[in-house]
Amino acid sequence: MSDFASSVVVDGSPMRPARRHWLALAAAASVGLAADPVLARARKAAPAAPAPTLAPPGDLLPPAIQERLHETGLAVEGFGLHIQALDGAPAVLSWQAARPFVLASTSKLITSMAALDLLGPGYRWRTRAYLSGPLSNGRLLGDLVIRGGGDASLTSQDLLAWFQQLREQGLQEIWGDIILNREAFNLRPQDLASTPEPSPDRPHHVRPDALALDAGVVSVAVQSDSGGRANIQVTPPMRDVKLINALGRGGACVANAVYRDVEGAPQPQLQVNGQWSARCGAQQIRFSPVSMRDLGLRGIEGLWLQAGGVLRGRVVEHTEFSPVPWQMTDPQSGATAPASAPFSEHVSDPLSTLLVDMNKRSDNLIARHLMLSMAPDFPNRPATAAAAQARVRDWLSRKGVRKEWAGLDTGSGLSRQEKATPQAMVHLLSRAARGPQGKLLLKTLPIAGVDGTLEGRLRGGTAEGQAWLKTGTLLDTRGLAGYVRTRSGRMLGVCLLANHAENVAAATPALDACVEWAARLA
C-alpha cells in the first residue's frame, strides 16, 4: 500500500484565484500607469542598436542600507543589490552587482520579457481534438485523439465546457478510445534533475506536461449541507476512484485527504478524514496525489461523462501504434505532411493574461511551459529543454547580456542553475520598460502592499502602491526585482538578491528596506 496525504486546511477561498480576478486587481491598482510619462519618455529614448557591454559597477552602499544589512546578522557578501533609474543615470545603490546570484522566482521576469519578445502578447496555447474515424449520427466510429499543446492553465472547468462544445458540434458517442497525446514536450530525466521532485503536499513542484490538467492538482471541496453533514466534491472527477467520507462529528474544522492505491483492491481510494460540524462552512484541500498522466486518464474520462458524452472504449495514452490524424505518411517515400484539420480546439487566454497569473502568484508551471514554448517551431516540432534554453540565450545575447551574466534553466526559478547579476537584471528591466511591452510587463507584477505575493508586504510606507516587484523564495534565496517609483515620479529599475545557506529569511526586512529607501528618493 502506498499513501499520499495532504492535511492542508484553508479558509474556504480557493488557493488558485480566477485569472480575470488578477487582471481586475492589476488594472485597478495601476491607475495612471498607462500614461506614465517616465515610461513614455524612456520608450522614446530607446536606442536603435543593442546596448553596449555592461561595465562592472562600483559598490555604492548608502549608510542607512549598510546598517540594515548588518542588522540581519547575515554576511553582507551574500547580498547582491542594484538600483538605477530607467533613464540611464548612475546607480543610486549598487553592491556586488556584477556577481551572479541565484534568482529564485525573480527569474520569471526574464521568462516574461523573453516570451513577450519571442512569442508576442497575443500568443495562446492550443489543445486540439481529432477524429480518427467517421462521425455518423452523433457516433464516432473510431477514436477521439486529444493533442496537448502545452497549456499550463487548462482546468477541469475549461475541459468540461470544451467537451460540451464537442457535443454541440455533433459528437455524442465515442465508439473507440479517447487517446491522449503529450508529444509536444520532449523532456529527458536529466532535463528535470535540477528541480525538486514533485510530492503530494508540494503542488508547485509539478513538472511540465504538454497535456496538463488542473496544474496536476486534485481539489477536495468540503462544505456543510442543510443537515450539517459534510458534502465532498472532487475536481477533476476521478473516474474509478472510490471516495470515502470519514469525517467525524466534532467542534474542530479540520480535514485532510489521503489517496491510497491498495494492492489487490479493485480501485484506488480517496479518503477524507478529520472533524466537521455545521459551523465549518466551506473548505478546500489541494494536493497532488497522482502523476499528471494518471490524473489525465482518470479526470478526462470523468469530465467527458459529466458532459453527457458516451465512451465505449477507454481513455489511454498515445503510443506508436495510435492514429495520428494530423499527419499523413506517403507509403512509398515515408515522408509526412499535414493531414486533416482538428475537429475542434481549445485556446488558452493570451500571454498578456497568462503573465498576470504567473507573476502575481508566482506560478511555476506556467513559467516552465512558457520556457518550453519558446523552443523553435513549437508546437509543430516537439519542444526540448536544450532548444528552449538556446533560444533564450540567443535572446539575452541580442539584449547585450552575456551568458555568464544571466541564464535560464526551467524559467521558473525552481532551479538553482538560474542565475543573474543584479546589474544585468536591471539592464534587462530598463530595456523592457523602453520597449513596446513595457507597460504590459509592469501590470503583470505584484504591487507593494496591494496584491499578489506582495499583498502583505511594504504596507504603510512610501513604497505602498509605488513598487512593482517580482518576489523570489527558495530555502537559501530571497529576492525582489522590478520597478519602483520615487516621490518625485522617477522610475527606477531594481534587483535585490540574497543568497545565504542558513536563516535567509532574515534578509527579507533588509530587502524591503531597500525598496522603501528607493521610494523615498527625490
Number of helices: 12
Q: Tally the beta strands.
A: 26
- Which stretches are low in confidence, meaning pLDDT under 50 for 5 or more residues running? 1-35, 41-52
Could you describe the largest sheet, including whether it forms a barrel?
A: 5 strands, antiparallel
Q: Structural class, from helix and strand content?
A: alpha+beta
What's the gyration radius in Å?
A: 25 Å
- Give the strand line-up of the largest sheet: 3-2-26-25-24
Global shape: globular
Average pLDDT, to the nearest integer? 89
Strand content: 15-25%
Describe the structure.
By secondary structure, the chain is an alpha+beta fold. Helices cover 26% and strands 24% of the residues. The strands form 7 sheets. It has a 5-stranded antiparallel sheet, with helices on both faces. Strands 18-10-8-5-21 form a 5-stranded mixed sheet, covered by helices on one side. β25 (477-485) and β26 form a beta hairpin. α2 (37-44) packs across α10 (422-434) and α5 packs across α6. The longest helix is centred in the middle third of the chain and has 15 residues, at 292-306. The radius of gyration is 25 Å and the shape is globular. The protein starts with a strand and ends with a helix.
